[in-house]
Design brief:
By secondary structure, the chain is of the alpha+beta class. The protein is 17% helix and 33% strand.
């Protein structure tokens, strides 16, 4: 039964202030619409004004800075619509806005009918008795939120940004990153950013539906739970039937119920014998079950939904660690899973523009990079269903923060408390069907801040109950199928939230704190579950040229600086510039622009490789290598990501892909040896050959050993070692330690380790030859070659990039036989 009329499409918008018209003048039935701009709903004001030519493209140059006035105006949206007779005469009629950003007053035919101030949750306003049959005018008085919190305290609720005195983001339930983060400019969104519709009912409606699995310990059977929330609008008890069907199992269950007036909840479940289990990649398949829920009154379906879900169990293993502290391992279906991936932030600074194809493409690129996990960071948005659908289908686990980051939140305000309770309840129910969502986490870096950061004596712990009472209780009541973790990072037993030996960690010693540009500091880090840490590097030249005006394509230009990462400014002349100078030995200001972009990108790749290699070799003493961050929200000069705003693979993309291979090898220096560690993430023991040794940079293999190797399933194991004394005798500035894994199909993994900085190595000339072997291109060189680059701009379709050549050892990449052989555009060898 379709009791709904969409109100999307063409609307009008107008900015208002006290000097050039008050919003009250434009919300009535009559208004001079020649004073308005055309707008599209769903939409956002910046987008409409770009379309109208009022402001420039906010992704380019400094246009985002020039558009800041938009957040400081009140906006009126309006349109006319036709209400059918059944809507005007129904017992209940609603105007439903799925996304209002942010403080809104809704008017129908000039009369105020409702208010809303949460961008994450729908606004549903009952307009029964006020809706006219035929022509109606709806108007929305809307502002970004700044006016609504203008008289709220600011300084007491944030400790790291003086700008909080102006915008007071902690009071505003909208994505926090838009108020400026190191990787995103200040661009405060405002608009009707999700669909709008008119709905009506004479009996009842189906509201939310929660779906989650319950798996027996022996995996022989399961239940799929379906919890239906209904609203009875008749004012008295109403007989009804709730029905749940799971077509893949042939199971169906229904129950006759009496709906009390108002809201009610009804629980159903179907039994599944010998269920097909959902697994993260590469541990198994991702079978999905369909759940159809239906609410029937008088033999007529008044509401129905269809959801897909998967059957799996999730647990956090925190058993005692044999050395000290505890483990922190995500177990799916009783099996420990090593999490590989990056942090997901909203893929656009204007989140209305995030669409399903973009979400799916980003997840597909993550899978191509051998990721099996993404962390949805707490300063952004709740995950889009399109993103989670892709993760469900492709076996990518999602660690999901609730939306609180790096601030104190005013739970001591009663209205705020009720607002965030409704928000969390909506999100938990809405996202419950997705098996890929394996964990809800309370916040980002708030517990750590109170333990380690400055300024905590003023207004201490105003939000403590959000993360340690409200959210865990809601999780227990609403969705017991997935664990809740209070914050990230967080440690049990009253330990420092950044303790390396329990809980989860954000190892920011590199890039921010004590070892700011020392990427090798990762080599000693024993974090049990590293899920945020990373390294900065320049974006691809094609991306740089896309967002920088032609006359500003240089270091330190105004637009370059505006698009730069704030962390770069923690040092002078800048962390990224120091990284290149201190590791490569070149002064950035004296380098050719493209040379700088290449070496900055190559150091970014090196840093992420160090991060990943360190934690993977420690599997499962460490159980995660989730880096900061996976994707961008806008085009940047320097960034953390491996996929940029324009969906280009950055130079670091393929080194990360290789480091995340299900079977790989990692050389690691431990005291008097270089340990050769094999990593096998698959479900079967691996057997093959390990070749390892020392290679002179100028050519030759003074140590070259091969032996049979076995790596047990889902584990890491030492399979060989090289005495450091032997390497020192050859000369660590003249050589590199290496390892390769081979099976019957050839080399499947190659890696190396240096102990001298790149600028201190005795580089030799690269003498690269490229030949064809069927559907492969084969590279070789008599000398060592660092960072063979086939695509610096991010424009060419290549199966591998930024790889090394060991002297006299072939390196093969997939390359279609009908393509011209690839051209090497750059290599890292210094001074050669």
């Amino acid at each position: 039964m379709n009791n709904s009329v969409p109100l999307n499409g063409a609307w009008k918008i107008k900015w208002c202030d006290d000097n050039h018209g008050r919003p009250e003048q434009y919300v009535g039935v009559e208004a001079d619409e020649t004073l308005f701009y055309d707008a599209t709903v769903p939409g956002e004001v910046h987008v409409d004004l770009m379309r109208a030519g009022v402001i420039g493209d906010v992704d380019l140059g400094v246009n985002a800075q020039n558009a800041r006035w938009i957040e400081e105006e009140v906006w009126v949206y309006r349109r006319q619509f036709h209400a059918p007779p059944q809507a005007a005469t129904a017992k209940a009629s609603w105007l439903v806005f799925d996304g209002l950003d942010l403080d809104a007053i809704v008017y129908l035919n000039g009369e105020e009918v409702g208010r809303h101030n949460n961008a994450y949750t729908p606004c549903r306003i009952n307009v029964a008795g006020k809706l006219r049959q035929g022509a109606n005018t709806v108007a929305v008085w809307l502002e970004s939120g700044l006016f609504g919190v203008s008289d709220k305290p600011g300084e007491a609720y944030e400790w790291w940004s003086i700008n909080h005195k102006l915008h007071k983001r902690a009071w505003l339930r909208k994505p926090q990153y838009q108020f400026e983060w190191d990787w995103n400019p200040r661009l405060i969104n405002v608009g009707i950013w999700r669909p709008v519709r008119l709905e009506w009912a004479d009996a009842a409606r189906l509201d939310a539906v929660t779906v989650y699995p319950e798996l027996a310990d022996d995996h022989s059977r399961a239940k799929i739970h379906c919890r239906m929330f209904a609203e009875n609008v008749t004012g008295s008890d109403l007989p009804a039937t709730v029905r749940m069907t799971c077509p893949e199992t042939g199971a169906s269950v229904e129950q006759d119920v009496t709906l009390p007036a108002g809201d009610s909840r009804h629980d159903l479940a179907v039994e599944v014998e010998n269920p097909k289990l959902w697994w993260p990649r590469p541990h198994g398949d991702q079978p999905l079950y369909t759940v159809e829920a239906e609410l029937v009154v008088d033999n007529e379906a008044v509401g129905s939904v269809k959801r897909r879900t998967g059957i799996r169990s999730v647990k956090i293993n925190q058993e005692p660690h044999p050395e000290e502290g505890r483990y922190f391992i995500i177990e799916v279906n009783g099996r420990p899973i090593f999490m590989k991936g990056g942090n997901w932030v909203p893929p656009d600074m204007i989140y209305h523009r995030i669409d399903a194809p973009r979400c799916r493409k980003l997840v597909e690129l993550a899978v191509e990079a051998n990721c099996n996990a993404l962390r949805v960071w707490g300063g952004g948005l709740f995950a889009d269903h399109a993103m989670l659908d892709a993760c469900d289908e492709l076996g990518v686990m999602v660690w999901h923060d609730f939306l609180y980051a790096c601030a104190k939140y005013p739970l001591n305000d009663v209205d705020f408390m009720h607002n965030i309770e409704a928000e969390a309840t909506f999100a938990i129910r809405d996202l419950s069907p997705h098996p890929s969502l394996v964990l809800w986490c309370g916040n980002n870096e708030i517990d750590e801040a109170f333990y380690n950061w400055r300024g905590q004596k003023k207004n201490p712990y105003p939000h403590y109950a959000i993360f340690h009472h409200i959210l865990p209780v809601l999780m227990k009541d609403e969705d017991p199928s997935r664990p809740y973790w209070p914050g990230s990072p967080y440690s049990p037993d009253h330990e420092n939230p950044q303790s390396k030996i329990c809980g989860d960690q954000h190892p920011w010693e590199v890039s921010i704190w004590s070892d700011a540009e020392n990427i090798w500091a990762y080599r000693k880090d024993v974090s049990r579950c590293a899920n945020e840490g990373g390294v900065l590097g320049a974006s691809a030249p094609a991306t740089i040229r896309q967002f920088l005006p032609e006359d500003e394509r240089r270091l330190h230009s105004r637009s370059w600086v505006f698009h730069d990462n704030a962390v770069n400014f923690r040092t002078s002349p800048g962390l990224c510039y120091e990284m290149v100078e201190n590791w490569v030995g070149m002064k950035p200001e004296e380098m050719d622009f493209d040379d700088y972009l290449f070496y900055s990108s190559l150091m970014h790749a090196e840093g992420l490789k160090e991060y990943i290699d360190n934690y993977r070799r420690r599997m499962f003493s460490s159980s995660s290598a989730i880096f900061w961050m996976y994707n961008d929200s806008w085009p940047v000069s320097h960034g953390w990501t491996i996929v940029d705003y324009y969906l280009r693979r950055k130079l670091s993309y393929h080194p990360v892909r290789r480091a995340f291979q299900p079977i790989t090898v990692v050389p690691a220096v431990e005291r008097e040896h270089v340990l050769i560690v094999g990593v096998n993430e698959t479900t079967a023991d691996w057997q093959g050959t390990v070749r390892y040794g020392l290679a002179n940079l100028s050519g030759g293999l003074p140590m070259d050993e091969s032996q049979a190797a076995e790596i047990p399933a889902n584990s890491a194991a030492q399979i060989a070692r090289i005495p450091m004394a032997q390497w020192c005798e050859i000369g660590t500035k003249k050589s590199v330690a290496f390892a390769l894994l081979s099976d019957g199909d050839g080399v499947i993994a190659q890696n190396r380790i240096f102990v001298e900085k790149f600028m201190d190595l005795d580089w030799a000339e690269a003498e690269i030859s490229v030949t064809r072997d069927g559907d492969h291109a084969v590279f070789s060189s008599p000398t060592f070659v660092w960072g063979v680059c086939l695509d610096l701009g991010g424009e060419t379709d290549v199966s591998d990039n930024a790889f090394d050549l060991l002297p006299g050892i072939e390196y093969r990449i997939l390359w279609a036989g009908d393509r011209e052989l690839p051209e090497v555009v750059r290599v890292g060898n210094l001074g050669a």
